[in-house]
Structure formats: structure tokens, C-alpha cells
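Schema walk-through. Below, the input block comes first and the output block second. Nothing else is stored per chain. Lengths vary across the set, and this one has 451 residues.
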Amino acid sequence: MKHYNVIVVGGGISGAALFYELAKYTDVKSIAMLEKYEALSTLNSKGTSNSQTIHIGDIETNYTLEKAKVTKRTAKMVEKFCLQYDLQEKIMFKHQKMALGVGKKEVEFITHRYHEFKELFPYLELWDVEALKEKEPKIVYEDKAQTKVRKEPIMAMGTDTQYTTVDFGKMTEELVNKAKEVNSEIPTDVYFHSQVDFIEQKSDKTFKLITTNGDKYTADFVVVNAGAHSLYLAHKMGYGTHMGCLPVAGSFYITNEEFLNGKVYMVQNNKLPFAALHGDPDILMNGKTRFGPTALVLPKLERYKGGTYLDFFKTLNFDSHIVKIFWDLLKDSDIRNYIFKNFLFEVPYFNKKLFVQDAKKIVPSLSVDEIKYAPGFGGVRPQVLDKNKEKLMLGEASINPENGIIFNMTPSPGATSCLGNAERDTKEICSYLGLTFNEKQFLADLTEDGV
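--- output ---
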């Protein structure tokens, strides 16, 4: 039975970020990562499973100014890590990006938001129709010949100077590789095909982990960064029983050729808890535009993988409180119609025709024959249900009983906040185990202003 100071469960970008920070910025004696599958980032961190966006808070219209201040700090960590290791133009890229308002109400919203956010993001510009004709002509014109300007007023806030796009799957690999390089003096072991089935706390306060293939490990501290399965494992230990998990799958449609010059995000409907439709140049598909995501509730915890249906029902933690949450969501006509329409986005024959109608808000001239459903694209985001408050929780959720184990569930934008979340957990681990965290070096390396 192998023993480690810290074991990280899950080989996605959140687990990899913690693995890296522990190796580089602490005096930890040994670290291991246990990954269920044959490689790192095979699920939500994979480049095809997310929009590849650094969500900094400038064009995400569902972010408040206060949230954007927090998100900006953690998003810049992703950029700083990539620049530190010369990964720009390899796994991190610059694209034009904007939040687009369509119609008088949204134009007023964008204009007001621009002035509200300009101090926090001084690089932002306000683009009217004439500017957009140069930046993104396809969003301005109703016809392919680009002679007929769309009838609705439009306005965008955006920039063409920032890093916007990351292959988070490749970044996951870089984080783990750099962890091994920066601290070769201690064990930094990664075990694949190691699905953790059981965790228990022993009498000496160490934790025992058993995998489905019978391998056994012990650790002084355990952090579970396993997406929806984090809550599944927490429930097995009796933690987080006031929570349930609603897995929401996102799918994408992709154009036949390069379509947009950059990222175009829409104004978020605050009633809807899921991301508004956006268009992104896909760095894995030679810049073809990917439109999405859709939002489909699935009775399984992992997309494009066998099984996990039973895990879903166990993690849903179904009771009358869950029924109340579902009822409150479905009785709102906007949410009900949204859920039904997104179901139809997955149904052959109907899907493309319906999806194009929504995507035309971004590109009015878009036709059915210019896009196709992107098979194998998209992931599952574990939306957490709080049974005590009887409501859907938005944002990241973490269970920390303060006894040497943490369970993290990271819905979008979990990839963007990976290094910031890892900073929080690194501090907790160091405090609990009496380790030293080189915070000064961490801040110098990974934050914009050293704070």
C-alpha cells in the first residue's frame, strides 16, 4: 500500500492545477494523482468538451462587476502560466472577442455595461455598426452579398488585443509535466486506469483509497476533483447530503469553413441558469466557427462514456426537495421552453433547422447547409442542487469538512478558475499539514500585480 502526503483524485485541469501548485510552491513530500481513464483530460477539460474560452468576465454579461473582479484575477493566472512557459501560439491564442447586443433594449444594456466595466477592463472598446462592418461583417448583414444591413440596432463591447483562447486539454498535460520538472526530488506520481471506488478515514487520521481494480493507497490529505463524481464520492462518505447533482450536457454545431473572425457572445437571459449562445473560432478545427452550447439534462454523469446512469440516480439524491427545485424551474415558461427547445436541438432532422434560428441572432444570413452537428463535442457540467435552500446553485461548489479531505465540483468556467481554486486548496492543505506555501513566488509568477 503506497502512502502520499497528498492524493488528488481526477486528472482534469482542476486536479492538474493543484498537482502543479503543490509541487512548485510548497514543501510537500509526495503527491499522487489517480485518474479513472487512460490519459489526462478525457472528459470536460478536453479541447472538444468546452468552448476553449478564457472567461475573464469582460464579455460574459451574466457576470456582475464584483464577480468579474474575482474572475479577472484567476483568469489572468491561466494567461500568466502559459506565458511563463512560452505556450502562447501553441496552446494559448489571441482572438477578437465581443459581447453583442441586438435590439434597442440590448444595445442600451451593452452601452451601460461598457461604461460600468471600462475601468476594470480598460482595453474594452464600444463598437457600433460601422465598426462591426470591419470587425465581424457577417453579424451586420442579413444577406451573404453583404448589401442589406440587419433591421435591428446592434452594438458590441469588445477587444482584439487580449489572449482569449486555450486548449485546456493540452494545458492539463503541461501542468502535470511542469509539476514533475520543477520538483524532481519528490514523488509526483500519476496513476491511470485508477478509478477511486471507496475512501475512508482511518483512526490515525490518514485516508485509505481503494480503486475498482483493487489498488490501495493512503494519504494525509485528499482532494477530489472528479466533476460530478466528486459529489458521488462525498455522498459515499456521508458528506454533502444536502446536495444533489443535475448533469447538464452541452453540444455544439460547427461551420463548414472559417466563419467568424473571433468570439461573439450574446446578452445572457438572467432567468436562464445556462450560458447564452456564442460563436467561437475552434483552434482544433482550423478556425472553423463553433456555435453553442446547447443545454440538455442527461441522466448520466459523463458524456460519451459508457455507464454512470446508476451513479447519476445516486448522486441526484432524489427526494421531495429535489421535486420542489424541478417544479420551480419548470413552472417558469422561459426556462420550460428553453429546456424543451434544447432537447429538440439533439433530435435528428429537427435539430439543425431549429438551432439555426437561434444562431441567426449572431449571423442573420446563416443557413442550414452551412453548419453541422459536431459529434463527440461537448461535455457534462454538474449543476449542484441545494436541498436546504431548494434551489439550483450557480458557480463552483466545494465540500470541505475540515478534516483533511475536500470535494470540488466545478461547472463552467471551472477551467478558467483552475489555478485560483488550486490556490485556495493549496493554502488549506498547507495549513492542515503544517507545510510551507511560497505565496510570494506564487503571486509573482501567476498574478497580474503580484497580489
